[in-house]
């Protein structure tokens, strides 16, 4: 029984290490890893629900698309109300 537990723990440790390394190898943020321009976010409900720290993005300039690490920005944390232009009588 002890052998099974040790082997199971070893397998779980391997899975955890591989997951951490793959996460750290992913590009971070909204900038393209090739041309360094801002990419467009592609919404994927399944990916957003299962792994909210990852995001799929697409570069309009060079066509690169892939999964990147999501970066929390100050604009995303504080929701801003849409500004409505005021009508001024003339
Ligand atoms: Zn690009």
Structural write-up:
The protein has a domain at 27-71. The longest helix has 24 residues, at 2-25. The protein has helices at 2-25, 45-50, 74-77; strands spanning 40-42, 54-58, 65-69. 38% of the residues lie in helices and 14% in strands. The chain is α+β, with helices and mostly antiparallel strands and 90 residues long. Bound molecules: zinc ion. Residues 32, 34-35, 37, 59, 61-62, 64 line the site of zinc ion.
SS element count, helices: 3
**Mind describing the biggest β-sheet?**
3 strands, antiparallel
**Run of helices and strands:** HEHEEH
Heteromolecules bound: zinc ion
Helical percentage: 25-40%
Strand order of the largest sheet: 1-2-3
Overall strand count? 3
N→C terminal distance: 86 Å
What is the strand and helix layout of this fold?
Elements: H1 2-25, E1 40-42, H2 45-50, E2 54-58, E3 65-69, H3 74-77
Antiparallel strand pairs: 1-2, 2-3
The chain binds zinc ion.
């Amino acid at each position: 029984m002890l052998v099974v537990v040790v082997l199971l723990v070893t397998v779980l440790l391997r899975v955890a290490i591989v997951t951490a390394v793959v996460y750290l190898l992913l590009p971070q943020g909204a900038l393209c890893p090739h041309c360094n321009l801002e990419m467009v976010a592609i919404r994927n409900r399944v990916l957003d629900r299962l792994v909210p720290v990852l995001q799929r993005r697409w570069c309009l300039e060079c066509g690169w698309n892939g999964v990147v690490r999501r970066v929390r920005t100050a604009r995303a944390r504080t929701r801003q109300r849409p500004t409505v232009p005021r009508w001024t009588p003339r």
